[in-house]
Write a structure and sequence with these properties.
Neutral Protease, domain 2, 9-stranded mixed β-sheet, alpha+beta, 6 domains, 39% helix, Immunoglobulin-like, globular, 30 strands, 801 residues
């Protein structure tokens, strides 16, 4: 046993000693090193036109470059499935060869170092990625018609032959020829519109500074545009649909103020000359930070009522932040994605802190911590890793940046960030560049921080206990802290300054900050006044990303829930009461509800009181709360709605929140089926984002035998509508177990759609129907008919079905 014990100690020591080098080995990913390229691409000039009904691109691109080597006789450009017509250089044809990934250009004579060179490629393509033609083949002509692009990660290569990687930046120039009468947006400044004799117009956009090719964009559609200016004079173009002018103001709230905010926080003026926002239908994600021109899904284009449940502010600031972090400076490869996404998550949180207050900020931070901790339940990959995943690049990275500010100070971090941005302007960066900025501006080498939070995985798990002691000099509070996470190659002990607070029953407190870095740590806080301790806080305000085991008795939880200055500490005390019996906590929880104002805390109180019949008056009060989240919680956390209170719940059918209306219609119809007809009358004109209230209305009507409701739901599944409406209608029809030939056709059309969310929902819906014998033959017949249309149909349907 003694030998095994010492062997275990030796192994533990080896792991701790080798953590840095071993983690570095794990971080090093040969396949993620920046791609080699023999030339520096300097300028990309694109002339492009479209045949939208065919999804066809007709293009000509001129690449200007500077050789990085003495002699370059060939280049490879990314161009999968692009048909190259010709490649010319100074008017002379160049030989080329294509394969499934792109085109090899053979330069004759070879390009030489120190001499700029260029060549031009004429091409056509009908891509399924990178550029999207929305609504052009809707047989009913009801769908919105648009053309838009999405280049990240490396999808612009599917419609432009180019060197399509993050580690080379170019100045781009775009000339788009399209039918006159449309609005066209691209990167940079609009330097001219030329009317052509054939009824088309050529829009000419040009960038002044280099950017990564994945940030190139085009947006075409029917729009109106509002122009604003920032305090420093940057023009901001806010695009919106002419038929929805009421959505312009609520959607674009704070659109110039957030630019002013970013300039003030970074000390770097907006890096480009113009900025625009453009909504598009069926967008693949929430939004995309194309340089000078953010594209976002029109499901976030909201009016005043829709704003209650969802708004564009956070997404707007996120994409705007990328104009600095991602566009102005760009990660060299995907393993440093956090340098872009974490900062674009951090700054919106700070901006909205100024809009909504400290409680909102603490709740956002708690959400980030929760996401990070969940990711660590699956694996312990560090943030600096190409497979770290969105939970680490976005919320965890944002929380780590918060901790940088907490540890090193706000003013110090502003200096670091200003230096980091300024010294890498319009260039590529990696994590070490940020580290070097600490050294250059503060004289610090915070490798310990970078090592534990960025280059290693996991988070600290603290176990905390305390007791009052009588010492030779008087009373003291002894706090024992243990780090109980598993120690491994990827997760070690954490070193952090931790604030400890002892709150006394007389309302005073003692505060002490300790650097916690060992497996066990004991802190003594003197209690010279011999005061009675009410509660103890470890890291008040939730500054540190962590798991924590800190068991507290009822009296201490009560005191903390009543008197902790920070909302999140009061929330934690309430959450810790979940396992306690109602008889012990009911009266206290109801009294706290009358004091608290933040929606998440009030929702937690309502949740714990769900089965408490004595709290019904509180639930009725909550139904009148100014916050939609609380009104919705009051409905959801009512175990049973009595006849005497029914009118109060039915009032939600006319609520200002679509979420509340939808939830009320669903709940009340289930609990009071005899009243459905009346509920349908009350809500017959309600729609909601994605038509969700209307679709529920139709589902309830169809259950009562309304054939027209089934037809309308089937129509909502068609290509005449945007993808969220189609998804909502599919789900309703699936619950109704309804199928016919038009619906099968609409579902198969959705499977062919480039929006992967829609295609996935449609495929899953079809598969569920195929498991039922009554629909199997109908659907299989429809699939075979669809596959006969083209090779593309066979490939896509084969992938999903």
């Amino acid at each position: 046993m003694k030998k095994l014990f010492f062997a275990a100690l030796l192994f533990t020591g080896m792991v701790n000693a080798q953590t840095v080098s071993d983690v570095r080995t794990l971080i090093y990913q040969p396949d993620q090193e920046p791609r080699e390229h023999p030339v520096n691409m300097l300028h990309l000039k694109l002339d492009v036109a479209f045949t939208p009904t065919e999804g066809k691109v007709i293009g000509s691109v001129t690449h200007t470059f500077a050789p990085l080597r003495d002699r370059v006789d060939s280049l490879f450009l990314d161009a999968p499935e692009i048909q190259i017509q010709s490649i010319t250089r100074n008017g002379k044809a160049q030989n080329f060869k294509t394969d499934s990934k792109g085109v090899y250009v053979f330069l004759s004579p070879p390009a030489v170092q120190g001499v700029k060179d260029s060549f031009k490629i004429d091409y056509t393509c009908t891509p399924r990625k990178g550029i999207y033609f929305i609504g052009w083949n809707d047989p009913t002509n009801r769908s919105r018609k648009q053309i838009w692009t999405q280049g990240q990660g490396v999808d612009n290569r599917y419609w432009i032959p180019m060197y399509d990687e993050m580690n080379d930046k170019v100045i781009t120039e775009t000339r788009i020829t399209f039918e006159s009468g449309w609005q066209v947006l691209s990167n940079g400044n609009l330097i001219g519109e030329q009317k052509n004799k054939n009824g088309t117009t050529t829009w000419h956009y040009r960038m002044d500074y280099p950017h990564a090719t994945y940030l190139m964009m085009i947006g075409i559609g029917k729009y109106d545009i509002e122009m604003r200016k920032t305090k420093s004079g940057t023009p901001v173009a806010l695009w919106y649909y002419p038929e929805f002018p009421e959505k312009r103001v609520p959607t674009y709230l704070y659109s110039t103020e957030c630019i002013d905010f970013m300039e003030a926080r970074t000390g770097i003026a907006y890096p480009w000359k113009t900025y625009a926002n453009i909504p598009v239908q069926d967008f693949l994600y929430g939004a995309m930070e194309n340089t000078t021109a953010t594209i976002f899904g029109d499901f976030i284009l909201v009016d005043d009522r829709e704003f209650i449940d969802r708004n564009y502010i956070g997404t707007n600031v996120h994409e705007l932040t990328h104009q600095w972090f991602g566009d102005y400076i760009t990660a060299r490869s995907s393993k440093d994605t956090w340098l872009q996404e974490s900062y674009a998550t951090f700054y919106p949180k700070q901006f909205l802190r100024g809009v909504y207050g400290e409680d909102y900020y603490q709740w956002q931070l708690r959400g980030e911590h929760t996401s990070a901790l969940r990711a660590s339940e699956k694996d312990l990959l560090p943030i600096v890793h190409s497979k770290a995943g969105s939970s680490r690049w976005y919320p965890k990275g944002s929380a780590v940046i918060d901790m940088m500010h907490y540890v090193f100070g706000e003013d110090a971090m502003k200096r670091v960030i200003h230096h980091y941005l300024k010294n890498h302007a319009y260039a590529n960066v990696e994590t070490n560049d940020l580290y070097q900025s600490f050294q250059d501006t503060l004289g610090l080498s915070p490798m310990w921080f970078f090592e534990q939070w960025l280059y290693r995985g996991g988070e600290p798990h603290y176990q905390v206990e305390w007791e009052s002691l009588q010492t030779s000099t008087g009373k003291a509070t002894e706090i024992r802290i243990s780090q109980i996470q598993n120690i491994s190659m990827l997760e070690g002990l954490f070193k952090m300054p931790v604030v400890l607070e002892v709150h006394y029953t007389d309302g005073s407190k003692s505060t002490q900050t300790e650097w916690i870095q060992e497996a066990q740590h004991i802190v003594r806080i003197n209690n010279s006044g011999n005061k009675q301790v009410a509660f103890v806080l470890f890291d008040p305000g939730n500054k540190i990303l962590k798991k924590m085991r800190f068991v507290k008795p009822w009296d201490e939880l009560k005191a903390q829930a009543e008197r902790a200055p920070e909302m999140i500490d009061r929330y934690d005390a309430i959450v810790a009461m979940r396992t306690l019996p109602l008889s012990q906590k009911s009266s206290f929880l109801q009294s706290r509800y009358q004091v608290e104002t933040f929606h998440a805390l009030k929702t937690e109180l309502l949740t714990q009181l769900k089965e408490d019949v004595t709290a019904q008056s509180l639930r009725l009060q909550a139904l009148q709360d100014p916050k939609a989240e609380v009104r919705l919680a009051a409905l959801q956390q009512t175990a049973s709605i009595g006849d005497n209170d029914l009118a109060a719940y039915e009032a939600l059918l006319k609520d200002s929140s679509y979420n509340a209306v939808h939830a009320a219609l669903s709940r009340l119809s289930a609990d009071f089926p005899a009243n459905i007809a009346r509920y349908l009358t009350l809500t017959q004109k309600e729609t909601g984002p994605g038509m969700k209230v209307r679709i529920l209305w139709l589902e309830l009507s169809a259950e009562k035998g309304d054939v027209d409701a089934l037809k309308e739901l089937t129509d909502y599944c068609s290509g005449s509508f945007e993808f969220i409406t189609r998804q909502n209608a599919m789900s309703a029809l699936k619950r109704l177990n309804y199928m016919d030939v038009p619906l099968a056709s609409n579902l198969l059309d959705a499977v062919m759609h480039p929006n992967y969310k829609l295609a996935g929902t449609a495929a899953a819906t079809l598969k569920s129907y195929m498991e039922l014998n009554q629909w199997k033959n109908l659907i299989q017949s429809a699939i075979e008919k669809e596959k006969r249309k083209s090779t593309l149909h066979r490939e896509v349907l084969g992938k999903y079905l």
